């Protein structure tokens, strides 16, 4: 058994009928590289042979009585792999847009809390004879960095790599703890958390004072929450999701990065800024001030214990009110740098440490009350969107002998924050996965189509080197 951290558990508490907290990892594979040809049975065998390398896949959540403190993971005594593997066939010709539509339907369904919080849908009938893998996993079990590590345990560097060595000890399920056992765990948790409170308050005060000194000294900081304009996608969610994918050349992004002397993440944020400006302007809604983006950043350190979520969020201004792409990228770079400096002064783990004190029942009730009354339609958004950038592998990868051609990721959207852009790099391309509600952003495909022209404008406007 293992207790969820407060940060992990918060993703459970934030879930409502319209606010799904799962993520997707979407892979497109070429089965022509499989030595003996593709079969669904071989896919099943490949996953089964690697379950010991995928710890979250056989764990399920157990709540404590009265939900006094955060829940625990147990090795599910009722685990069955067939409950998590699905097989579908796209109607001919199985093109890119049809695949995105299927993924959108999968994204619109929540996971079953009574089972380990993941599922894999194998998609056959795709154009070109390709195969799709759509993996849905709850955010409480893995953030982007953790998901990348889990993927590394599934993929191989050669098509005929064979099965990995079996575990040193066979997997053993655990019995569901009794109420008495769970109450004992809850009492121990409350005592342990209470002991950390004085030190946490002291660290918080020191961090806030450090930020204030930094600001008084002329330093920049994060964009202020609730400072962005309200856009069409900043409203109450529905249960429906639209997922759209796009591909960009990584070499072009690196050329733009070098030309401006900024980071790859700055270029991605500036590209999204330019695309959003064009998209909103086409609807007569050009922003009058900068949008605010939440940018997740990993807080993992080398040698630290592996946790499902080790992530903090930077609040960054996206200057969609500026028409000049040079001004856009310069402004993005400045605000990102300031947000990183402020985060380091506060302490990157400060918010996750405070989340240990989150009271499960009141927090969940408040989230469901806010969501159920569509209050995001009548309140200003804390931020406008989420933009996440996860570095991926540069070498070719294979699973079950099939070559990985593309990999996309989908992060959750939140009440009032109805747009999430997540990019993963793989080999020499950047794969963008964008999600919203069709009721908030009916033309999401049109927005994604503006990414490439926005990147072109950044390159054309770049200073000569």
Question: What does this molecule look like?
Answer:
The protein is an alpha+beta fold. The protein has a domain of 202 residues: Nonribosomal peptide synthetase, condensation domain (Chloramphenicol Acetyltransferase, 2-Layer Sandwich), CATH 3.30.559. It is 36% helix and 21% strand. The chain contains twelve helices and 15 strands. It has a six-stranded mixed β-sheet with strand order 5-6-7-2-13-12, sandwiched between helices. A six-stranded mixed β-sheet has the order 8-15-14-11-9-10, with helices on both faces. α3 links the parallel β5 and β6. α1 packs parallel to α10 and α7 packs across α8. The longest helix has 38 residues. The protein is globular and about 60 Å long. The N and C termini lie far apart (57 Å). The model has no long low-confidence stretch (mean pLDDT 92).
């Amino acid at each position: 058994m293992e207790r969820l951290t407060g940060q992990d558990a918060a993703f459970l508490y934030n879930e409502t009928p319209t606010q799904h907290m799962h993520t997707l990892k979407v892979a497109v594979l070429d089965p022509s590289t499989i030595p003996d040809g593709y079969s669904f049975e071989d896919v099943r065998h490949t996953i089964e042979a690697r379950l010991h390398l995928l710890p979250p896949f056989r764990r399920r959540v157990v709540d404590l009585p009265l939900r006094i403190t955060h829940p625990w993971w147990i090795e599910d005594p009722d685990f069955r792999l067939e409950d998590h593997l699905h097989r579908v066939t796209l109607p001919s010709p199985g093109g890119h847009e049809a695949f995105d539509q299927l993924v959108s339907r999968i994204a619109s369904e929540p996971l079953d809390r009574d089972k380990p919080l993941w599922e894999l849908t194998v998609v056959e009938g795709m154009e070109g004879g390709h195969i799709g893998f759509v993996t849905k996993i709850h955010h409480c079990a893995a953030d982007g960095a953790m998901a990348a590590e889990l993927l590394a345990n599934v993929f191989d560097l050669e098509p005929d790599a064979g099965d990995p060595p079996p575990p040193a000890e066979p997997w053993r399920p655990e019995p569901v703890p009794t109420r008495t056992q769970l109450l004992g765990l809850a009492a121990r948790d409350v005592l342990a958390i209470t002991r950390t409170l004085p030190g946490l308050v002291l660290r918080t005060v020191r961090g806030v004072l450090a930020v204030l000194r930094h600001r008084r000294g002329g330093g920049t900081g994060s964009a202020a929450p609730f400072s962005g304009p309200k856009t069409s996608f900043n409203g109450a969610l529905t249960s429906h999701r639209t997922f759209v994918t796009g591909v960009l050349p990584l070499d072009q992004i690196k050329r733009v990065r070098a030309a401006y002397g900024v980071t790859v993440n700055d270029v991605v944020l500036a590209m999204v800024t330019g695309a959003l400006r064009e998209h909103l302007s086409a609807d007569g809604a050009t922003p009058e001030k900068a949008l605010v983006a939440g940018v997740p950043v990993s807080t993992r350190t080398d040698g630290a214990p592996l946790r499902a979520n080790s992530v903090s969020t930077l609040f960054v201004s996206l200057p969609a009110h500026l028409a000049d792409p040079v001004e856009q990228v310069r402004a993005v770079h400045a605000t990102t740098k300031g947000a990183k400096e402020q985060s380091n002064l506060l302490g990157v783990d400060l918010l996750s440490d405070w989340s240990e004190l989150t009271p499960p029942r009141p927090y969940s009730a408040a989230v469901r009350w806010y969501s159920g009354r569509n209050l995001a339609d009548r309140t200003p958004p804390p931020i406008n969107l989420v933009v996440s950038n996860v570095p991926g592998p540069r070498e070719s990868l294979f699973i079950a002998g099939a070559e990985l051609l593309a990999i996309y990721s989908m992060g959750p959207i939140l009440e009032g924050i109805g747009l999430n852009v997540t990019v993963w790099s793989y080999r020499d391309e950047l794969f963008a996965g964008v999600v919203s509600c069709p009721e908030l952003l009916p033309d999401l495909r049109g927005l994604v189509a503006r990414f490439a022209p926005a990147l072109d404008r950044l390159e054309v406007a770049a200073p000569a080197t």
